[in-house]
Structure to design on (469 residues):
């Protein structure tokens, strides 16, 4: 019988939640790497037992962990993510130049086809790749070498490369997103990059329609329709129908269009999910009610999904990497909160139930659908 | 034989219990001890000092013989009692919130 494995990164360790295909009863293992911040862990699409985890702390820096048995045991991998060539500068919060300085890995994106190839998005913003199972890392320096890089400025969470989307129909195409620079696309496996921010409008920057400088929070793609991208920006939910060349707003009737995660239903490319957050200074849900919003029309028309979610006295946030879908039928949807709950819906969002309620603050949620 | 005491989180990373014992050739300095430690436990590279600059991470401290050795030059000799193994070289996570 098929099953699912939910990989949860928290402020104080990683947890692995497993269930069979009914998604009713769950086993919880962890904490793995207790006491460490786990910004992200993710499994290889080519080998579900191969997992990668980003483990970091303010004291001891960055550690990369690798599992070959689906998270039962872990081995430390290479953690030397050194910028290639001259470090250069970006802009600091006060507008002064600041040398690039590695802080942590925000996101690990395993290759769609090779378990030993994995990409790492880091703070300060850069993209690294390993082709030996995370033993050694090489920067793809064309991104940080883009002519706009000296003008990139950090968002509140730092100058982080937090989103990596690989195009299944175009093996050399990579999308990344940086806060607060925006979306970039490479069509040559990471050698050269172009900003993909036309149509974005951000009133928080001097030129609201600038080519770079937008605080993109997350982008998502459906594998069957890789030319269509969905974006949760700092404010505004956006859609591109031309692989990022241009964007249009699809916030529609959302109660607020600020938020962090966005994801796409596994079998319906026009069904998308967001979690509206009250504002950029109030990082909690509006009206003290935790509501996932679903659009079945590719945006603009949204319905609140509340069944099983707290509808009073709730003040949690859902971070950008903390939502995922499985590929069972019906599609399962999962998300984790800063309050430590991981919610699951086995019916595309119609009803929700917590898998766990009291984890440390959740940073990331990924799901593997197991044969 | 140099004795090194690691903080709990780094003992977990290195898969060791208790003290680490190291042979250090030549003068016993902070750099020599850390070089020997990282040679025996490569997974600790980057966790105590930066991979590239080799600077001590800001929230890591080195203690020995009840002295804070964190700000000593990396090539300065460590106290005799540490060099002979009578006292351990302590790697400590700084007292800070989180």
């Amino acid at each position: 019988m098929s099953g699912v494995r939910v990989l949860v990164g928290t402020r104080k360790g990683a947890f692995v939640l497993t269930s069979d295909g009914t998604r009713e009863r769950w086993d919880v293992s962890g904490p793995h790497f207790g006491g460490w911040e786990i910004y992200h862990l993710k499994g290889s699409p080519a080998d579900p037992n191969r997992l990668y985890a980003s483990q970091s702390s303010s004291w001891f820096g960055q550690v990369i962990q690798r599992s070959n048995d689906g998270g039962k045991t872990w081995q430390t991998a290479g953690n030397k993510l050194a910028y290639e060539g001259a470090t250069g500068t970006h802009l600091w919060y006060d507008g002064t130049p600041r040398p690039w300085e590695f802080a942590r890995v925000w996101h690990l994106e395993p290759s769609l086809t090779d378990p030993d190839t994995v990409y790492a998005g880091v703070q300060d913003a850069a993209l690294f790749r390993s082709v030996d199972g995370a033993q050694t890392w090489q920067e793809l320096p064309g991104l940080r070498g883009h002519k706009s890089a000296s003008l990139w400025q950090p968002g509140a969470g730092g100058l982080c490369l937090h989103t990596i989307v690989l195009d299944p129909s175009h093996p050399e195409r990579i999308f990344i997103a940086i806060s607060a620079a925006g979306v970039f696309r490479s069509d040559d496996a990471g050698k050269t990059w172009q900003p993909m921010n036309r149509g974005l409008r951000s009133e928080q920057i001097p030129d609201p329609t600038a080519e770079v400088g937008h605080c993109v929070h997350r982008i998502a793609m459906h594998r069957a329709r890789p030319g269509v991208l969905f974006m949760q920006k700092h404010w505004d939910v956006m859609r591109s129908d031309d692989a990022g060349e241009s964007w249009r707003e699809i916030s529609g009737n959302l109660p607020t269009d600020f938020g962090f995660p966005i994801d796409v239903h596994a079998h319906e490319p026009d069904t998308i999910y967001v979690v509206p957050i009250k504002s950029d200074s109030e990082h909690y849900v509006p009206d003290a009610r935790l509501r996932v919003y679903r659009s079945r029309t590719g945006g603009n028309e949204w319905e609140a999904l509340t069944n099983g979610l707290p509808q009073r006295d709730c003040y949690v946030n859902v971070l950008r990497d903390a939502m995922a879908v499985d590929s069972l039928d019906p599609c399962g949807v999962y998300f984790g909160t800063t309050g430590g709950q991981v919610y699951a819906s086995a019916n595309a969002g119609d009803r929700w139930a917590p898998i766990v309620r009291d984890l440390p603050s959740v940073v990331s949620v990924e799901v593997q659908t197991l044969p | 034989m140099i004795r090194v005491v690691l903080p709990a989180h780094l003992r977990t990373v290195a898969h060791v219990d208790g003290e680490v014992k190291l042979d250090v050739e030549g003068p016993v300095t902070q750099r020599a001890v850390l070089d020997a430690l990282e040679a025996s436990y490569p997974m600790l590279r980057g966790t105590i000092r930066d991979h590239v600059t080799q600077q001590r991470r800001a929230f890591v401290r080195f203690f020995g013989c009840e002295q804070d050795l964190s700000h000593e030059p990396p090539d300065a000799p460590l106290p005799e009692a540490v060099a002979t193994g009578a006292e351990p070289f302590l790697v400590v996570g700084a007292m800070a919130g989180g």
